[in-house]
Each structure stands twice: as structure tokens, then as C-alpha cells.
Amino acid sequence: MTYIHELTMKVRDYECDLQGIVNNANYQHYLEHARHEFLEGTGTSFAKLHAEGIDAVVARISIAFKTPLKSGDEFVCKLAVKKEGIRYIFIQDIFRKADNKVVIKATVEAVSLVHGRLAESPELNALLAPYLMNE
Q1: pTM to 2 decimals?
Q2: Contact (Cβ atoms closer than 8 angstroms) between residue 128 and residue 80
Q3: Cβ atoms 56, 44 nearer than 8 A
Q4: How far apart, in whole angstroms, are the C-alpha atoms of residue 84 and residue 103?
Q5: Homologous superfamily (CATH) for 5-131
Q6: 20-57 per-position pLDDT tens digit
Q7: Active site positions, annotated
Q8: How far apart are CA 68 and CA 70, in angstroms?
Q9: pLDDT digit string, tens, across residues 50-99
Q10: Which of 21, 90, 91, 100 could cross-link with 80 by S-S, CB 3.0 to 4.6 Å?
Q11: 39: closest CA among 85, 106, 88, 73?
């Protein structure tokens, strides 16, 4: 897998459940934060796109949990993106930094709403075109 973006983060105590591992819902926060940071790296933001009437929204998410993270663990969220029809498919994998062990493997499907309607966004297409995986 060739990733186009990586973001290093650290687990905070309050993200863990009674078992002492990261609560499953927090992984979606990590994934979303990495997508937002990726987008900012392209020179735009979700807020800027929204102001232009363009909203990229999650349509489906699938997460395979492999190894739990614990409080204080550093991890890297890696991202790749491809386009299938009107959907942008973000392949996002998280690895524990200490041993590079796979923590989760996720696929996030997003679509664009243009002025509130499901539609292709030429602006978003142009923005993401240089980063799309070739298959």
C-alpha cells in the first residue's frame, strides 16, 4: 500500500474504557482527524469547502480491529484515497509506533453534497485528483 498522508498521535487517558484500551468509537475520531489534516495539507479545509456549498460526508465506514491501543501509546494513522463513481474511498490504517503492529484497517466511503444535493463536485475532484490511487 502506498499511503499519501501520515499523522502521528498519542492516546489520551480519557479515550480508554474500563478494560484499559481505546474505546472503539474513538478510532473514528482518529480517522476523521487524519482526513481533516490531509485536506488542510492540500491547501483547503472542510470549513472552506462548506462556505462554497460543498460538503464531503461519510456514507459508510468499515473498521477491522486488529490490536488494541492503550493509554499513552503513540500511533500513526496512514491514508490513501481512490475514487469509485461518485464515492471517494479513503483507505486508512493505524499502526502502533512502538512495534509497527496493525491496530485497525478501515475503509471510509465519502460522497459530496453540492448545495445540499448529492452530486459530483468538480472542485473536490480537481483537489483530490493528484492524490488518487491508480488501479
Answers
A1: 0.94
A2: no
A3: no
A4: 26
A5: Hotdog Thioesterase (3.10.129.10)
A6: 999 999 999 999 999 999 999 999 988 999 999 999 99
A7: 17
A8: 7
A9: 999 999 999 999 999 999 999 999 999 999 999 999 999 999 999 999 99
A10: 91
A11: 88
